[in-house]
Amino acid sequence: MEHEATQLEKQHVHSVYENTAAYFSDLQTKAWPRVRNFLLEQKPGSLVVDIGCGTGKYLSVNTQVYNLGCDYCEGLVEIARRKGDEVLVCDNLNLPFRDQCFNAVISIGVIHHFSTKQRRIKAIKEMARILTPGGQIMIYVWAMEQKNRRFEKQDVFVPWNKALCSRRFSESNQSGDKGEFVHSAKGQDIHPAQLVISECSYQNNLQPETDSKHSRDVDHCLPRACCMKISEEENRFYSALGRSFRSWFFSRSLDEAALRKQSDKMKHLKHEGVWANNTVPIQHSRHCSLDLGHPGALLNEQGLDDDDDVFVESLSLKKPQWSPATDALKDLSLNGEHQSVAQSKGDKASFINGPVEDRDHTCGCNKDGAGKSDASKFFKRTSTTDSTDSALDSAVSVGDQTDAVLDTKAFMRYYHVFREGELCSLVEENVPELQILSSCYDHGNWCIIAERRG
Amino acid sequence: MKLLTHNLLSSHVPGLRPGGGFPLKIELGHPSELPPEPLPDYEANEEFLRRLHHVLLEVEVLEGSLQCPDSGRRFPISRGVPNMLLTEEEA
């Protein structure tokens, strides 16, 4: 499992950040207030390290302390260096620091990139190791529970699009410059099946039993479009562009795969193999499919060929319903309407009600068989009702759905999103050297502050 | 890389003796203007403190390497950035 984990992270974390690092220098992302405060509260002369510092956003918040940053990605570290930050390249799982030498550690939007529970624990333990007794750590991870939707599963791929990178963002929803941008297909040679295939071939690497020809079959590929997390700031941006494209892809959980390997060895589940995740997400009242009037119809559908393709309909917002970030996690009820933009350029979104009608189109495994057009149906573009601008409209050809799907260079980033309480439990049960001082939900993230005991 | 950072670094090559891997040897020829040992009562010695501050925080290694004193493994420093990543085989 270690090898699979490193491979997954290599492909869907490290190489994505390396390849997209160049775009980040243009981004000006603000520091999260809570993180800022945490840093500003440190005593002058403290030794503070940002593990997973990216471009060094937090390294100049408090000039009274010694700020050190490190990241796995050389490209991002270079950018920080150019800003004059003190940085180095290293691995969170094997920090090159002495024991107990830092007064404070921050880990903002980092450990959700680790693909197994063990690795996440190891990352936290390493950070605890370098903390001096009484020293504090702040950890931020992406939450499964989001303002207007909920990730259906915890292991997801989120596409990234460079089209928006030259734009200035006032804030990012996560510390790392996550940049979930609307995808521009303009001028790209897109073959959605290729994107899908690249994931399949990865999948196949892990399932030697799988018939390799399936890798080219769209039917068996990884789940398709869903919703992308969008912060308020990004949403304003998207509104301005007139189009919001939300999609993410569900990854199979390596943790589950490990469990399944042990218990399901003999049970063959077609192409799913060790990847199969038969656990159906529990539909609760806030679930979108319920709101759409078809209780769990789509997502609970065991009839799906590829039962791991949990497809969540793209959600629309009648108008942005972003409550202030400081609100407690409010009602996650979703607008019942499902919009899809397949239609025309510049038009307002067309509305399709209910997922059931679209099921054939939107199922992760399309029963129609492989093909460009089928794959394209997986990727639903959504539109806010305020669709006005045509900046992205022009990028979406009329009726050419294949271009409307993701660029093969879309750089899918892997995330394990955390449930409420998961981060706390992780620390309480596995990292006894840390004592949790506080935890909260902030801007779509679960956050904890813990102190090194002793 | 500032020398204060160097103070915090340790080699994490697997299999080192306990307490091993520190301090990493900086390889480049730059003499320091510090005495080999701290003078008694150095906290009050303005001159010494000034020099110490300078060496720790104002001198940067731009190109060179850090060598693990136990395993000999070298970690490169380029453009002021040390790369402490181990290869998959090493880790």
Verbal overview:
The complex is a heterodimer of chains A (454) and B (91). In chain A, the strands form 3 sheets. A 7-stranded mixed sheet of chain A has the order 3-2-1-4-5-12-11, sandwiched between helices. In chain A, strand 4, helix 4 (117-129) and strand 5 form a beta-alpha-beta unit. Chain A has helices spanning 2-24, 33-40, 74-82, 117-129, 192-205, 232-241, 254-263, 288-291, 359-362, 372-378, 422-430, and strands spanning 47-51, 66-71, 87-89, 102-108, 131-142, 155-158, 249-250, 337-340, 350-353, 413-416, 434-442, 445-452. Chain A is an alpha/beta fold. The model of chain A is unreliable at 166-230, 237-246 and 269-406 (pLDDT under 50). The two termini of chain A are 34 Å apart. Chain A has a domain at 1-26 and 33-165 and 410-452: Vaccinia Virus protein VP39 (Rossmann fold, 3-Layer(aba) Sandwich), CATH 3.40.50. Chain B has 91 residues and is α+β, with helices and mostly antiparallel strands. Chain B has one domain: N-terminal domain of TfIIb (Single Sheet), CATH 2.20.25. Helices cover 21% and strands 15% of the residues of chain B. Chain B has 2 helices and 4 strands. Chain B has helices spanning 3-8, 46-58; strands at residues 25-27, 64-67, 74-78, 81-82. Chain B has a 4-stranded antiparallel sheet, with no helix packed on it. Chain B is globular and about 50 Å long. The two termini of chain B are 24 Å apart. The relative contact order of chain B is 0.28. The A-B interface holds A 6, 47, 66, 68, 70, 72, 74, 77-78, 81, 86-91, 93-98, 101-102 and B 1-2, 4-5, 8-12, 22, 75, 79-86, 88, 91. Chain B: It comes from Zosterops hypoxanthus. Chain B: This is Multifunctional methyltransferase subunit TRM112-like protein. Chain B: Pfam families: Trm112p. Chain B: InterPro entries: Trm112, Trm112-like. Chain B: GO terms for molecular function: protein heterodimerization activity. Chain A: Keywords: Methyltransferase, Phosphoprotein, S-adenosyl-L-methionine, Transferase, tRNA processing.
